[in-house]
């Protein structure tokens, strides 16, 4: 029994399907990891990419298209700081701040879920780069982790290793259920409500929807296996 | 509306791939993870039941100035708990709530994690992240030209708490080598008045209270059970003395503090009249010959250092004659009989310990209240004796020396306006922003502050804001702080600091056992997100400016600096031992008492040691800088003081001077003060503003509680959960006369500002005053301090933290209405003198 996702992948390529997901995870991680540079901004404003964004319902306002490029890069950096860095009022992009736990151990940096995320990721054989000095449960790290698992899934499909692919999907499902689904919607809602620039508002909206999409897809596939 | 169909997402996926492919070429997309996902069964086992191990790391607290030795417990790289170090002779294994809340600082969700540069107008709240390299380059670009131009003084450094190795590294190495002497502190808003009074009487400041051996404790204005600068080393010992040995504690205080509540007796006293009561006690003691005659050998009580005991007694009696208990009753509101009874109790119980703090000192001429306390302790012989008021004993670390700068200069803005303060021994920090505003003594071009909040910690908050915001007064400002407080909001550059649980230090706070404790602070976890401790930033900045801090090799970080101290300090068993154990004291050391009695040998011995007896007749032996020079001719003569000749001709160590040229006597008679037109012997100076108060006016007094410090703890969730409201305490009679009921909102207004709070009507305060604590009233400093967590509006369903963060009041800051006004003797900020009008809203 295979799910719809797999059937479609069969028609084209199972790996190609995963590749699309990898790219989205990677794109989103890039956006959350650091401020947008001018070259990245140019890529985003490329008509082809805008059309792709538009196809999933992203509606960027005029604020992304008027004024000089330098000014917009600075405005986006200030907005990035206002939303994710502070100082002062901001929305820390870390799971342990938002993931409500029944034991009360949440609402701070380096909380119980920071440890849980770090262990989860390391239990799959991945390691944090030695030069990475951020916190282990930054939203960018979690999205990057999903990307890596999806990448391994794609490799399994290419190698006709259905058990391996199945295992990857189970890892994804577990990580989504235990972590992403527990805080990404809450976090994104806060960003959507607080964003001044349409770009981060829409990125938050698409992040929330994408994680929900992935949750449903992995559920659907695994329920059919 | 996001359309979550598979086809659309696949389209976006392909487009993202194109973008990312371009991104690799242009260098975007930093990644955090490395390696590949391996699907082999097993892998690392992280079960908390089988694999988790907590590592216990000795360190030192810093959540208040007491700085207790501590142990941090780390599990999976996460600091999970703070406890005391049971091997500490200072704390005996105890830790207060503030210490236990340390992890709240490290993991504050609103902590500043990256260097941030202002964008837009100063104070506008718009920021952009800088890399560490860019931030440090920017600092160097601003301060190096000042040094190169021979104007290092235009770089001003202003610190709050900076102790032991941090002080040595930042002040004696980095700032020294840079050459600026425009270095402000915050002592005058803390306890500078107490220190100056001690320097005028017994020399180097800090009185340590020997509760383990005392028989009686007399307290004027110290909240020792809640907020003392050596809190945990003293408070539990006093409790133990009271419960185990029946030691009595009598507390004079305006308010029923928890110290007063736990005392054998609370004696309510009018604000600022402690000195009058102490003088009256001295009067009663000497009038009834209850004083300790022997101690007078070491006391200067007349202008003549060779005066006999009888002459000293006559001088004191004559001076004290007017300060009768009946006179003090009219001033303090305490009956003459009560004053006499307590005086007799204190004089006849041996030994007894006299303790004082801001309640007695933070007033107009409050230094005189502390001098009166020194007189009361001296007359009863309770000075530096077992069970009495002792000279502080702390660690004395050996540190490496730094090279001298080409030029060393300072702006004359640290000590208040000319003539404003007689003895600004610890500077007058409450006047610094006023001096900058005035501008006549020059202004810094770069103003950097560290572990200090000039806006929030001082009085006259609005003026502080106005000055910090004004780019014509302060062209460039840098805030060093792990957190975004009210002052950081007005900086041009914020450099996030490591919290105290992420950094190195060697520590030296006073030991109540009179045996020095050596202890260190070491990082429990790495600073988050690559943050650098400010001490390490100093090494980096010095390197960038080409001014190495140490000529010897191998000292390139704060860890190296602390290692040097541990390896080179006599007795200390090395760096590895200190990292392993955290604390050390000499088990063979005897407690230090009677430091002033040490025999310094014959005149010939001292002459052979190149010391000279002051030809001016003070009896001081010191290094005479040139022939015919008298002790005191040069303002730094006290630095070469060696011994004091007593009236009987013996030479003793005496009470060694510090910061000013006093003799080696306990100088109850101070020619230095007389030279500034103050009474030579301790006296009482009424608070001018209190003499002509109109009906309805109250005295605003301030206090502290056990779970907060002055300005820097309200971001700790556990502490603010315990204390987040500070209503104004008002006596029922006073409240009734003003038409105020319990719980009413009131406006408190002075000549400089106002604030609103709730009235707490209680007999726990004397009539005629209103008491409001410090600590609270933040409008920045994160969600737990101010309720400012993340951008508004927040959908109600998106506030999950509400369940844990159940309180929604953040208190008030009385400082808005308190003038920045120094004691004219010491520069001490007068926290307890403000006259206010309180009205129901």
Can you describe this structure?
The complex is a heterodimer of chains A (225) and B (841). Chain A has a single domain (4-224), classed as TorD-like, CATH 1.10.3480. Chain A starts with a helix and ends with a helix. Helix content of chain A is 70%, strand content 1%. In chain A, helix 2 packs antiparallel against helix 8 and helix 8 packs antiparallel against helix 9. By secondary structure, chain A is mainly alpha-helical. Chain B has 841 residues and is an alpha/beta fold. Among the domains of chain B are: 54-103, ADC-like domains (N-terminal domain of TfIIb); 198-391, Dimethylsulfoxide Reductase, domain 2, CATH 3.40.228; 597-654, no CATH class; 689-792 and 800-840, Barwin-like endoglucanases. Chain B contains 27 helices and 32 strands. In chain B, the strands form eight sheets. Chain B has a seven-stranded mixed sheet with strand order 6-5-18-17-16-7-8, covered by helices on one side. Chain B starts with 5 loop residues before the first helix and ends with a strand. The model of chain B is unreliable at 40-51 and 790-800 (pLDDT under 50). The interface between A and B is large, with 101 and 86 residues.
